[in-house]
TrEMBL record:
UniProt keyword Hydrolase, yes or no: yes
Protein name: Fructose-1,6-bisphosphatase class 1
List of residues binding Mg(2+) 2: D117, D120, E282
Subcellular location: Cytoplasm
NCBIfam families given in the database record: PRK09293.1-1
Claim: Cell membrane is one of the keywords in the record: no
Taxonomic placement: Bacteria, Pseudomonadati, Pseudomonadota, Gammaproteobacteria, Aeromonadales
A Gene Ontology molecular function term of the record: fructose 1,6-bisphosphate 1-phosphatase activity
Cofactor: Mg(2+)
Domain Fructose-1-6-bisphosphatase class 1 C-terminal, first and last residues per copy: 203-330
Residue ranges the record marks as coiled coil: none
Length: 336
């Protein structure tokens, strides 16, 4: 079905902004910059096999991971797009050791900072499986007339002004929230525009999917092991056993569970005492979306959005999902 009469992302952003008479339009411009960069990254991903963007940069990033060419490409495109307009005074990225300060554009100081996982699911880039971009936006807390400061980036997730992701999947979608629910937009590649396709996304209260890298089972805390056994037990009246689904791209696992209902788990382990996921670039923005969609998000004992970050690249155990499944998990963790 043609969607030419539908609402574009640009129109939607402006409509949302007009509900706030005091809004200056800077957040709207910032979101527009993100969608523009997303379209460029999307184009490159779509032709990855025929352009020279597959494979490794042959260097490690600050996370100690082998940086892929597309990790770098996406990082540069989002950085350029955000630096060019002036709404943002700085960016922190999974791919950069320290935060990057942007010079004011037309002497106008940027009010916002952006934290980004430019390319999520690096291990899936070369094998044509869904990957994503995750972003998180905060209002700066440092004085407007100076450069961005570390404290602007180390704010608890509950202070996010907006968060979202782009999923480069069988179709490309941008899903975001400014704290008034979650809305999803699908890119029409022939028109080059995102159209509202998933208004007011709500995660089902229950759900029958659990998503975890079970290869690490031996390493999981007892409570997580028990929860997995619970998911696998036969209980037709409760719809168990549940289905195990794990793509290994957080964005894709999250997106599926958001639509179908389910739970995502990345627990701590012996080698990774805080798990693998980064609080600022992965856990917090997705926790914001999850709560906005009616689900829950914790590190196992504290709501993720309440955690006070200490460092830019800090990791955290991460559990996100449907309310019913999350309450069951939390009960199991407490009892273990
Ligand atoms: P990134 O590609 O941004 O470094 O993120 C990788 C993350 C996330 O996308 C994924 O869910 C998780 O790593 C997978 O980890 P395991 O391979 O340990 O399951
Ligand atoms: Mn990475
Ligand atoms: Mn990631
Ligand atoms: Mn990444």
């Amino acid at each position: 079905m043609e969607c030419v009469a539908g609402t574009t992302l640009g129109e939607f952003i402006i409509r949302q902004q007009s509900a706030f008479p005091d809004a200056t339009g800077e957040l709207s411009t910032l979101l527009s910059s993100l969608q523009r960069a997303a379209r460029v990254v999307n184009r490159e991903i779509n032709r990855a096999g025929i352009s020279d963007v597959l494979g490794s940069m042959e260097q490690l990033n600050v996370q100690g991971e082998e940086q892929q060419k597309l990790d770098w490409f996406a990082n540069e495109r989002f950085k350029e797009a955000l630096a060019a307009r002036g709404e943002v005074c700085g960016l922190a990225s999974e791919e950069e050791e320290g935060f990057v300060s942007f010079s004011p554009v037309n002497t106008r100081p940027g009010k916002y900072v952006v934290l980004i996982d430019p390319l999520d699911g690096s291990s899936n880039i070369d094998v044509n499986i869904s990957i994503g971009t995750i972003f998180s936006i905060y209002r700066r807390v440092s004085p407007l007339d100076g450069p961005a400061q570390l404290e602007d980036f180390l704010q608890p997730g509950c202070k996010q002004v907006a968060a979202g992701y782009i999923i480069y999947g069988s179709s490309t979608m941008l899903v975001y929230s400014t704290g008034q629910g979650v809305n999803g937009f699908t890119l029409d590649p022939s028109l080059g525009s995102f159209f509202l396709s998933h208004p007011n996304m709500r995660i089902p209260e229950r759900g029958r999917i659990y998503s975890i890298n079970e290869g690490n089972y031996q390493d999981f805390p007892t409570g997580v092991k028990r929860f997995i056994k619970h998911c696998q037990e036969d209980s037709p009246e409760q719809g168990r056993p549940y289905s195990s689904r794990y793509i290994g791209s957080l964005v894709a696992d999250f997106h599926r569970n958001l639509i179908k209902g389910g739970i995502y788990l990345y627990p701590p382990g012996t080698n990774l005492p805080d798990g693998k996921l980064r609080l600022l670039y992965e856990a917090n923005p997705l926790a914001f979306l999850m709560e906005q969609a009616g689900g829950l998000a914790t590190d196992g004992s504290t709501p993720l959005l309440q955690l006070q970050p200490r460092t830019l690249h800090q990791r955290t155990p991460c559990y996100l999902g449907s309310r019913y499944l999350m309450l069951q998990l939390m009960k199991t963790l407490v009892e273990a």
